[in-house]
Design a protein that fits this description.
37% of the residues lie in helices and 19% in strands. It is of the alpha/beta class and 311 residues long.
């Protein structure tokens, strides 16, 4: 079976995945991203060993999906805001030494895209875009069964294409990036900035809480959800116009509440994409559940080494 490591800014999950894409054992711990890389590596190794023991299976290889810029072929961590002390570290080489098996790594959005293309909602689709919407917005593009890569094997940062040049300042330095308008924190920021001071739900607002309030009929929360649908729809419409993929798969924490706004997103796409056959692009939710990124990490290794599957 294949070991899988999903490195996120908040938590790191580790598991064992079978050839059908099922997680058979799983562990997780806090990433402690502001701490030393060596400590994080030790936790990964300990969890992987525990997962192997729990699954009772021989480890064939290890796949890694990691947030932020990573080099998929050298295995090095790039300049990731979440990991201030990790730049230049190489979990691929380190895990190869620890376990004596081959290891492959991709950006987490690319990993999730591979997972959904191989074992999920995008199976048998040759042109797929996976979009994850949560704390940020990331995307992975699969064209003819292969991960799309830019110059120097770089990962396109689709969450930072500009939707509204007069919009809020983004961490990348631009204004009005898709992420700054439609990620979970953008919902919170808009609601905090626009509601009156006596709005009763200002304390401890999160995107999840906004969706709960919207379901309960709160007017301001419903406005925030409408705004979310508008800006998510605009970004997705841009992807449809530029790539005209077979399918766009939507994942991430924000999409857990998709029933509140998915129809509105489809209306935005229909109104924005008249020069392409937008109706033939399926818009579907990720089907691999809470373990999408972990399963995607395993798929990274399978895809790289062509193990037991048709890629």
């Amino acid at each position: 079976m294949v070991g899988a490591v999903d490195i996120g800014g908040t938590k790191t999950a580790v598991g064992i995945v079978d050839p059908e894409g099922k997680v058979v054992s799983r562990f997780e711990s806090a990433t402690q991203a502001d701490g030393p890389y060596e400590s994080a590596l030790d936790r990964m190794v300990a969890m992987l060993r525990a997962a192997v023991a729990s699954a009772g299976a021989k480890l064939r290889g290890i796949g890694i999906g990691s947030t932020g810029p990573v080099n998929p072929f050298t295995g090095e961590i790039g300049d990731v805001n979440f990991f201030p002390h990790w730049r230049g570290q190489n979990p691929v080489k380190d895990l190869e030494k620890k376990f004596g098996v081959s290891v492959a790594m991709e950006n987490d959005a690319d990993a999730a895209a591979l997972g959904e293309a191989g074992w999920g909602s995008g199976k048998n689709k040759s042109r797929l875009i996976y979009v994850t919407v949560g704390t940020g917005i990331g995307a992975g593009i699969i064209l003819d069964g292969h991960v799309y890569r830019g110059v120097d094997q770089s990962h396109p940062e689709i969450g930072h294409h500009v939707i509204d040049a007069s919009g809020p300042l983004c961490s990348c330095g631009f204004r009005g990036c898709w992420e700054s308008l439609a990620a979970g924190p953008a919902m919170v920021s808009w609601l905090e900035s626009n509601t009156p001071l006596n709005y009763p739900h200002r304390a401890e607002l999160t995107a999840k809480r906004i969706f709960e309030l919207a379901r309960d009929g709160d007017d301001w929360a419903q406005r925030a959800v409408e705004r979310e649908a508008h800006y998510l729809g605009l970004g997705l419409a841009n992807l449809v116009t530029m790539f005209v993929p077979d399918v766009i798969v939507l994942g991430g924490s924000v999409m857990k509440s998709a029933s509140l706004f998915l129809d509105d997103i489809r209306k935005v796409i229909a109104a924005s994409c008249r020069f392409v056959p937008y109706a033939k692009t399926e818009l579907v939710l990720a089907s691999l559940g809470e373990d999408t990124n972990l399963i995607g990490a395993a798929r990274v290794w399978c895809h790289r080494f062509r193990w037991r599957i048709s890629c």
